[in-house]
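Note to self: user wants both folds in one dump. Writing first protein now.
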Amino acid sequence: MSNSTPLWSAFCFLLQSRCISTGHMTEMQRPLLQDQDQDSDSLSTPSVFGPEGTMSVVKLEEYRERIRKELDSAVDFWLKYSHDTVHGGFFTCIGRDGKVYDELKYVWLQGRQVWMYCRLYRTMDRFRKPEILEAAKAGGAFLRKFARVSSSQWKCAFCLTRAGKAVKIQRTIFSECFYIMAMDELGRVLDDKDMQLEAEQMMKQLIYWVKEDSSGLGRPQLPGDVPTNSMAVPMMLLCLVQQLTDGRGQEVVHKYRELASWCVEQILQHIQRDGTAILENVSPEGAELPGCQGRLQNPGHALEAGWFLLQVSAEQGDAELRQTAINKFVELPYQKGWDKEHGGLFYFLDVDGHCPTQLEWSMKLWWPHCEALIAFLMAYSQTKKPELLETFSQVYDYTFNHFPDAKNGEWFGYLTQEGKVTLDFKGGPFKGFFHVPRCLYMCERILDDLLANTKD
């Protein structure tokens, strides 16, 4: 899950200003239906299947080796440049060469980095290193000391000074979401029951804010404000349910079962236009909203929701949900969102072909491609359908040809529509140590399983 603000949009606009007519938009938004007469050589992808239609083990091993190296590089980059050894926590505004260009600390990214370090440390032997554990502990301590705006409230700040003083609060649940992820995962690593209890208590507050009374978020109820089911909210709550229940007993699973079902139901409401579109915002009853907000599509979010739903379908053995996840939240957003002329996924689209009002709509961002890699590889691993692996291969080629920085390590995050780097930093207010390593980590593990199964 990512975010876009008016100031951020304006900043991107200064670097990438263009005027695109509605007629051109319609052309650019034509779905890529995996036809064979593509104009661009950059879109041609070597098959991952042999002449008999059998999976190429060699190709999968090549993918795994590259992904493994990129993950090691990303971890090395953030270990080297992001740690604040004076005040604790992590710098996230880091230039292409590792230099810190702003000392503000964003709670989303603090929580994400703690979670990522802990997940790597807990589940992958090569990352079970003392420096990773110590960094996670220091990040967790910084969060617990400074993230909450007061000891009597669960509300967390969005942005902090280097020393931990609150700068800004968002009227959303997302700072709290990543705080919960960090506390639960760090609590698992340290076997710290207090941390896990804190995560569960904050989760209880989030559920109340979302389902009962949102006034605690500080958002005024204005007469013209239209109630909205934004897909990001049920997605994040579902992510937290999976975090809090993973590997725990049936008592914990039962505790969150109703919430998990509600989240899935809310996400499925975003299937609109007789199943031909995933819309980012719908009414609480699942109806299409008027105007630009109602027509908005975010292919990256839809793909991320797709693999969240695939995880649920696998846990529950729900074949119907799996099919819906693949058809509607994996294949459809890719078909709608892939740029047939230049390759890569658009950031935002308008379902009716109007030019989106988000100024950065046509840019190619790192995180939607990360979500696409996870979604297609997970979908293939569950179905073994060749076309899903072929699409993964196409997304893989675009991603690894455009985002990694071979010289300085890690990935660039923001490209023009044509695929040129336009913002060359490695970290900022929304890009930190999360989407890249999470994608690489999950893809490596899926490939491990696929390759192990070929030897059985």
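First done. Writing the second protein, which came from a different request thread.
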Amino acid sequence: MAGKAAAPGTAVLLVTANVGSLFDDPENLQKNWLREFYQVSVSVESHGMALLVGCPRRCTPRALSRESRRPGHDRPAVVHTHKPHFMALHCQEFGGKNYEASMSHVDKFVKELLSSDAMKEYNRARVYLDENFKSQEHFTALGSFYFLHESLKNIYQFDFKAKKYKKVTGKEIYSDTLESTPMLEKEKFPQDYFPECKWSRKGFVRTRWCVADCAFDLVNIHLFHDASNLVAWETSPSVYSGIRHKALGYVLDRIIDQRFEKVSYFVFGDFNFRLDSKSVVETLCTKATMQTVRAADTNEVVKLIFRESDNDRKVMLQLEKKLFHYFNQEVFRDNNGTALLEFDKELSVFKDRLYELDISFPPSYPYSEDSGQGRQYMNTRCPAWCDRVLMSPSARELILKSESEEKVVTYDHIGPNVCMGDHKPVFLAFRIAPGAGKPHAHVHKCCVVQ
């Protein structure tokens, strides 16, 4: 597959996906999701293989049983289309709302990813699952998957404790308490970052890789959400936006501190970036009049109703804590929602530290979780580009710019017409140019087998 690609350089695929919905309806949504992620051949069986499960106190093999698959669809999936040599999948809310009840679904999902016939050419893998759901102090529900194609030689991963690169061989899964795993750094944001949430899972996991003589960090991140549409509407920018800026700034400072050599970095996950609610509502409801509904006992605002000034006072928008019901959803889909990008302002605070390719896909959240509604948004939040792939300025330089007309850099979403849960996965596909890391070769002298 990837080894047959004619284009120069090392093909890289970075995918971010909030997969919480998949564990609430695994029978339908997981199949959709996996089918869109990789192309499943018709009537094939997965290959049994032994995987190493890494735990703080023991390492025991977990055998993956052979399972038959139902026929898949013939449309090209993201892995099949881009044929990456190196692939990273960052998941958030892995295991869903109730991790303990979803453990069997978690195991099956991991098994499907690692033993699919469509993934058989990826002979090395690293999986890091935060399954320590009983620890409110540490649990982030993050899952990071890394797949290496058989044609890719001399791939190294950084050991943060030993401060050395180690050659990647075989397939390994690390779960439960990731704090003791030297191949990553993991932190959960302090509770006082988002005091409204009694039990937040938000945090980040960082790994470092050396691929094609290029060293780079990959950061799986999940930032704080908007707890109330009404609160988000009150000020511009919203209080939630400020909380996200604080957390993201902390992560960026952390990954460029003095403990390790500085390298390029890609940060991709669920940033929960939202549109400027006040500006969006004012634009969508320019000719509307607003009615305020208050609670009888507390006089607290519980609903805002925007009605057209004429046209029989038709309701255009109803806004409640967890309701954003706009009468015309097409505005979020027309031309991929481009008209709304001017209200996507949260990344501007980091314009000197983070770069993003132009967005040409519709808002990635919140889609309907009804498996028959692939394009429909839920009326819970204003649609927004929550899921992103961002990079440092130096990482941008690693991306190969083709001299031909061939498109070698793609920034898009997965499953535009298929229900993938409440979030559409977002991906960045590119190629690292041959020798792109050579000017900084002194940084990678530790890239030797340990």
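Dump finished. Worth passing along: Confidence is low (pLDDT under 50) at residues 41-74, 439-450.
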